[in-house]
Amino acid sequence: MWTEIGTINDIPKLGARVVQSGRGDIAVFRTADDEIFAMFDSCPHKGGALSQGIVHGKAVACPLHNWNIDLVSGDVKGPDNGCARTVPVSVNGDVIRLQMPDVKATGTDG
Amino acid sequence: MKKKLIVIGNGMAGMRTVEEILKRDTDKYDITVFGAEPRENYNRIMLSPVLSGEKSFEDIIINSREWYADNNITLHAGDAVTSIDTDTKTVTSENGYTHSYDKLLLATGSKPFIIPVPGKDLDGVVTFRDLDDVNLMLEAAKKGGSAVVIGGGLLGLEAAVGLKANGMDVTVVHLMDTLMERQLDEAAGYLLVSELESRGLKVLTSANTKAILGEGKVEALELDDGTVINAGLVVMAVGIKPNTALAQDAGLEIGRGVKIDDQMKTSNPDIFAVGECVEHRGMTYGLVAPLYEMGKVLAEHLVSSDVVAYEGSVTSTKLKVTGVDVFSAGDFSGGDGAEDIVFRDATRGVYKRVVIRDNKIEGAVLYGDAADGAWYFQMMKDGTDVSDLRETIVFGQAYAGGGGGDPLAAVAALADDAEICGCNGISKGDIVSAITEHGLTSLDEVKAVTKASASCGGCSGLVEQLLAVTLGDEYEVQTVKPMCGCTMHSHDDVRHLITAKGMKSMPEVMQELEWSTPNGCASCRPALNYYLLCAWPTEYKDDNQSRFINERIHANIQKDGTFSVVPRMWGGMTSADELRAIADVVDKYEIPAVKVTGGQRLDLFGVEKKDLPGVWADLNAAGMVSGHAYGKSLRTVKTCAGQQWCRFGTQDSIDMGIKLEKMTWGSWTPHKFKMAVSGCPRNCAEATIKDFGVVAVESGYALSVGGNGGIEVRVTDDLCIVETEQEVLEYAGAYMQLYREEARYLERTAPWVERVGLDHIKANLVENPGMRKTLYERFIVSQEALQEDPWSERATGEKDSHEFTPLKIVA
User: Above 0.85 for ipTM, yes or no?
Assistant: First the structure.
């Protein structure tokens, strides 16, 4: 189910906002080039809130232990392993929609 | 018995000749060196980066005093030779020493040319020749204001850019209609003028200086056409003339310079001359490469009896201005029979011109992309037939085959005699054989053994590639530890360049310093944000998205995603009202834990992010502000009870602590910064494991620095004892500012003090009261921009409200 959650300008460039859902918090990221990505707000390492991290390129650094998560795939970059669960995004004009998942997130699926 | 060799001139030419002699035979000569400048031998061509602040004098010293001692060379620095007696074979110096010689080497260099206009002797008219000139310019630049540089050649432009980097308003006045007309053609000159103008310099060409105006001191410069330019500093950089006075008095044959033959011999068989003071086959030289070639030939001649001849030099030029890539070599005046091949790329600001005559390169001018300069220059010197390359030659070596765009392949394809280091005349073969023979594995080692890249450093990339090609996988290219994976520059380089180039935003830094990522990473962005904030406290706009979450929202994130809140308690003091307000906040927001911290205040744990503005509003209402317990910033000033209460107290430590905290709160620092004040040497506030510690003694306050109670406990180093509270404040502010300006991001004071040494800290704070005051003043200026409670702006919702509310709540 595609759900409208807001517009691009609601999210700071190189920043993130949180969508609270019954299935868990979802972090929605905006890159420098205004690309939008979404994933469950939980680092595969220790469950840190990815929405609070520093966004750079197409990646976010988890605020707890600085793991870098690829925004496109949810994969952990570099020497560490794991995968954050991504959420499909569609952007139409300024409007962002997420395809809300059916199953409750567990934080990792990789 | 050793023969006595006296060298007059402790500059680059003379000392290079001595090095070449020692390389061949360390026992042949007993060497004595006289230098007019009171310092060791340094790399004069690197004075420009010293002026612009990109390098320090220590960086450009070629041979330290230890080197002279190690090689048994007697150095008379600051003692110029005043006469030569060729009959008795002796020289006499300013200080009255008379020494005899068997062989005498003149390396007296050149003097700046002073144009004979009225006012040339006024105070504030300087030349650009030695370190004293640079210091004069830096001194003048401190006062700010305007400067005029007469002369738009290499040296003049480097001086102009350097003065601009020091904040002066600079005008370049050039007699000819093209800047650097000996090296550049009109098109490249135009690009250079636009570049300099875009950096805020004013450039006047076809401008003839009529007079320098002022009463005792420079006030302005007047041109032929009546234009008057106000200036407190005038730099004359119109050229040099060989320094021949001494040789002339000694009766040697003089032309434009001291006349020498192909073995560097003057008209007297025991006297030789090298460098800028000579005239050889009718030519004089003002660049470094020919001096080195002369030195080699002379050393050969003095050590062995082999007859080698110096046949003159073909020279090339590079402008040493960061970010301006200019190369020129040979003759590009064109004319009959000369073919021009020109390439332009306006968007990139690139201009290349190669002049070919009879299928050989006669000259080349490159602007904006000078990477292929060495390639053209080599073919030009070799007289290579380029008819096969003609179609593509202007696109450079990579395109011309062999390279294919891979820099390593291009270097691997170079011939053994291809010159790598133009300054020192070192070929690829020299470097490769040094690497294999001496088992060299780093740039520094290659530099030490061969001198390649030891002068201007422009070829250090090529030398590294040679190391990589020669050693294969064993070699890891790493000269300095880069800040992060996004750049090759070190923390220190980036900081230098931010101020030297006046870069004031993060995109500008990343563009200018060629970041390899579009917007950095989580490690360089916070560092750059800090460096910019520190360099431009009143202008730079803090980039919130480059701050770690704690500093972005002014609370500490905890492992469960909640936050902790620490209100400031000045000097560890609180009151019933504050405690009551805290208790009410804890009840109202159901905060699960309250803890007393090591810094004498209270930490409220487990606050939900959405509740932060409410918590702050209530704390603000009771007069409390952020304690910055989350920041790379001033944390706490811990105090003991002190004279007010304690029977041992000698000073009022609480009052002192509060004053320190009031002065320093809100500052951003490379890493967290803690202070403490103890009222007597029993030191109950544990001041000797703080970044800045104050321990009261009978006579005042003992100050100490660089302590740490973390993973590695370090006791502070004693700085000094001062008498008054005001002095404590001044030292604390100055020390923090020195730390702010010099330490690398995320470097605590303890490792910083160990890295730079306590002597360095003392030299700035204790031994130099002027510097201490300046640092303190800079700290205060920066604080004026920073001391605003970050909580209150956010508590009212006027700032960053998006941080504390979800984007949307869906079922």
Answer: yes
